[in-house]
Design brief:
Largest interface: A-B, 26 and 30 residues
CATH class of the largest domain in chain B: Alpha Beta
Number of helices of chain A: 16
Structural class of chain A: alpha/beta
Largest sheet of chain B: 12 strands, antiparallel
Order of helices and strands of chain A: HEHHEHEHEHEHHHHHHHHHH
Structural class of chain B: alpha+beta
Number of strands of chain A: 5
Strand content of chain B: 35-45%
CATH superfamily of the largest domain in chain A: P-loop containing nucleotide triphosphate hydrolases
Radius of gyration of chain B: 25 Å
Largest sheet of chain A: 5 strands, parallel
CATH superfamily of the largest domain in chain B: DNA Polymerase III, subunit A, domain 2
CATH class of the largest domain in chain A: Alpha Beta
Oligomer: heterodimer
Amino acid sequence: MNATLASETNWPVYGHDWVVQLLQRAIAPTGETGSAPARLGHAYLFTGPQQVGKTTLARAFAQALLCENSDRAPCGECRSCRLMAHGNHPDFRLIQPLNSDGEPDRENGLLRVEQAAGIIRDVSTSPMEGRYKVFLIQDFQRAHPHFANKLLKTLEEPPAQVVLALTASDRNSLLPTIVSRCQVFDLRPVDAAVVALALRQQWDVDAEQAELLARLASGRLGWAVEQQTLPDGLDQRTAELETLWRLVGANRIERMAFAASLASNRDNRRLFGMLALWTTWWRDVMLAQAGALDACSNVDCKSELQRQADALSDAEVRRYLETLNRIEGYLHHTVNTRLALDVLLLQMPSLTTHRV
Amino acid sequence: MRVSCLQENLAKGLSIVGRAVSSRSTLPVLGNILIEAKNNQLRLAATNLEIAINCWIGAKVEEEGAITVPARLLGEFVNSLPPEPIDLELSVRTQTLNLHCARYTATMKGIDASEFPIIVTTGADNDEAPALEGTVMELNAAGLRNMIDQVAFAASTDESRPTLTGVEVSFKKDRLSMAATDGFRLSVRSTHLGESNGPGEDMTVIAPARSLGELARISADADDDRPVQVIITPTRNQILFQIWGKRDDGRGNFHSVELVSQLIDARFPDYNAIIPKNYNTRTVVDKAEFLKAVRVAYLFARDNNNIIRLSVTPGEGDGPGQLQLMATSAEMGDAVNIIDALVEGEGMEIAFNAKYLIDVLSQIDQTQVVLETTQGTRPGAIRPLGMGEDEFLHVIMPMQPPR
């Protein structure tokens, strides 16, 4: 598909070279062409932060495994690769968490026990077209315990023609019995230069924007791609940064009012997006204080970063980053959102007090 | 593609292949039906990756071609049309199918036919898809349908035990037998195959009960004079049934149907071990009377785990024996039904699930059935009398109602 992708392979994946090479070796035919790969595992688990590329990688792995030209898989040209690219391959199954209406819902849905029964039945029949059947089970951290337990036997020894690929946020969120049955790949954040390259090559983003997105993405190519496809992706970030700057200079009353409006919105996606943005901001401020402004993420706001870095003490910024981290953790559980946000806003470093 | 066919034929074909359309698939193309015009026939195809159905109907092909269109939309649209010729025309550039019938016109957006999974065929009518090679045999359509009906209902519906959701189909010497069990009951049916019709070698496969059910349903419209051709692939992973439609030129007919099913790759449990080898009591009853008595008892039993108690009393002297059926519902009351029976051996009591009795008795055509039992805690066997060369045996595990 693209010769400048992961080095020396033609996988449609940017970054994660080490995983691609290991997987490529696993599917390589031993002996003459067309023989079965001897080193192929039966279950793979890809873990890593959201949008780092777990599913993309797992799909590419499936494509390579199902490709008809095993000597240069995935060739991107054969019928199998074409069907994979269009999401119509009959030997590839995507299993996603479902909400109570049976619709895919990756955030709040669950992998349900009926789905496990379906998988168990499905593995017992042979592939339609190729040599393998690949099951990609997404977001295993959303698996109901019954789903996971029901799948244990299949995961331990599926029929020879079945390969299972799992994705999950991290291995600690899974049952140890699941993890021990899989070959685990802990995906690391993708290098910012690779993200920028990918954005320029594959999504036609101009150099400056690509650089900014790559730095903001903290290694999650999927996030950067999503931002550039959203019409107001970056505008929204600018608006939120401006809000942050306003709050830094604001008094308690304004801050409490902001916390109140935020809590009443009940928009978790936006809330956590904002917290992530704040975290990168304060990290950048710390970097500026340490004299490493060039390594910052928000490259387009260097002057404001420097201004805040000079005006605030580094201990204060560090303490606030810890608070941010802690509150974000609380918000993932059942706490009073309003109270947590009040604390978050009240402890924010203030530029006005410093000037006094 | 430019083709025209009769509305009744198209509707019939769509209703046949429509059963194989997967309603909840993550693959968009599986929600579609493949339409292919070739050799003056229209081929309709659908698959849910377990069953695939190809159906050929007569048509006038002016230009060959193929496309896939949404199954539900097409089915409902065609069903609403008047019984007149339908013209179908494919616009290759936009991948849209234009349908025109009487004063109705519609355009449907499709997906490229090359996205559709490849379905194996016998190659009789088609020279592009891979022709299937393997073990071939021919079976009588009506006989096959009857066998499936008597066996498939006993298969399990618990998907997490795939083996038991299948029917074991085995060819041994000149006999074909089918067996299914869900762990509480077992149905075994066998028949004699003609010398030339068998596969020539012994083989055993497990076919999903659902696929066989579909086959029985489709073959109800088939021409019973022409045999069903069965092909099992050499790798034993697929089974294909070819069914011929009625030859008269009546409307609402198909030319032929091929049903391809994935086979379940597992070992079927050795059911011979649970078939009772002997009996202490042998009860012969009239099937219709027995079924009626069970149905009546079921009215009370359904509130109480479907438990009905059977009590067999041998006749005294020359008089006939009795089979007494009792059902009790703690809240509703109870019922006792008595039917005449020819009893051989000693009297005994046993409890069965009424549903299972109804299931098996409704599938028996003969007028008399035999119930063979040893004791209240051992499985009972039911078989019809007068099957000729065929054999049918149903084994039911007894229930143990609290005393």
